[in-house]
Design a protein that fits this description.
mainly alpha, Alpha-lytic protease prodomain-like, Alpha-Beta Plaits, 2 domains, three-stranded mixed beta sheet, 9 helices
């Protein structure tokens, strides 16, 4: 991530200079996105450092949610960049500017190589919500560089300047899609939604199907941080003396089948549940 940050920030400076010399909005928009990527990587590095801090009496779950906050900041930042690029692109479509296709083509080609190296470097690391947010930025950059190459080539060989603004809008569309997806996932974690790869009824039915388990209620599943899913539930059992063996079996089921590691299960004897139901009916 440190290598990716250094490469991304350095080339963003180069691309801004090239975009200003060439008067290419496609290059400038891609440079703006790369600055967003550099910021995203810096935030991701800081969040990774925070999330690795040990638990404390104040933060009993640790600081793993720092990754979620970092992803939220990055996704909102991307939306701001998209808004600025769209406004500039529309203005340029109304009043086209001369673009130096040669400079745009050369700088964008170099950008494609740099983004490819960064993408390869990040894809080899641990795939947390944090690094996935950074990868979305870099993938958007890769497509942005490709769009800038096409724009530079079209301007160089045909002199059709509107292509620069049109492809800038295309870059914005790519960034917008990735930003909305990331933002939706981040909001889901903050709102403690059930992870997208899990279905609450499926987990509940699997638990209830274990021999010795009568039923399951008050089932909750949420994401603590990247790669850490939590579950809590009340388990109605026929005989509390079976609970140690049942607890082991249920825990193994949740870990192996659903990749849920943080598990809290409360046993309830069947007789107690029946008594509660009868009492409620009398009331």
């Amino acid at each position: 991530m440190k290598l990716a940050l250094g490469l991304t920030f350095s080339f963003a400076v180069v691309e801004i200079g090239g975009g200003w010399l060439a008067q290419s909005l496609a290059l400038l928009s891609d440079a703006g996105h790369m600055f967003t990527d550099a910021s995203a990587l810096a935030i991701a590095l800081f969040a990774a450092w925070l999330s690795a801090r040990p638990v404390s009496s104040r933060h009993s779950y640790g600081l793993g949610r720092a990754e979620v906050i970092a992803a939220l900041i990055n996704s909102v930042f991307m939306l701001v960049v998209v808004t600025g690029i769209v406004i500039s692109a529309v203005q340029r479509l109304q009043t086209p500017r001369i673009v130096d296709g040669g400079i745009a083509l050369g700088v964008a080609t170099l950008g494609l190589v740099v983004n490819g190296i960064v993408l390869f470097t990040l894809s080899r690391g641990e795939q947390t919500l944090n690094t996935r947010a950074a990868l979305l930025h870099v993938m958007g950059d890769l497509l942005g560089s490709l769009a800038a190459i096409i724009a530079g080539a079209v301007v160089l060989f045909t002199g059709w300047y509107p292509i620069d603004s049109l492809l800038s809008l295309l870059i914005c569309g790519v960034i917008l899609i990735s930003s909305v997806r990331l933002l939706r996932e981040v909001v889901g974690v903050i709102m403690e939604s059930v992870p997208a790869d899990l279905q609450l009824p499926d987990v509940g039915n699997a638990l209830a199907a274990v021999p010795g388990v009568m039923s399951v209620h008050d089932l909750h599943i949420w994401t603590l941080s990247s790669g850490r899913t939590a579950l809590s539930a009340h388990v109605v059992v026929e005989d509390l003396r079976q609970w140690p063996d049942l607890l082991y079996g249920l825990s193994q089921l949740l870990q192996n089948r659903f990749a849920i590691g943080h598990i809290t299960l409360q046993p309830e004897p069947r007789a107690q549940v029946v008594h509660t139901i009868l009492r409620d009916k009398r009331c």
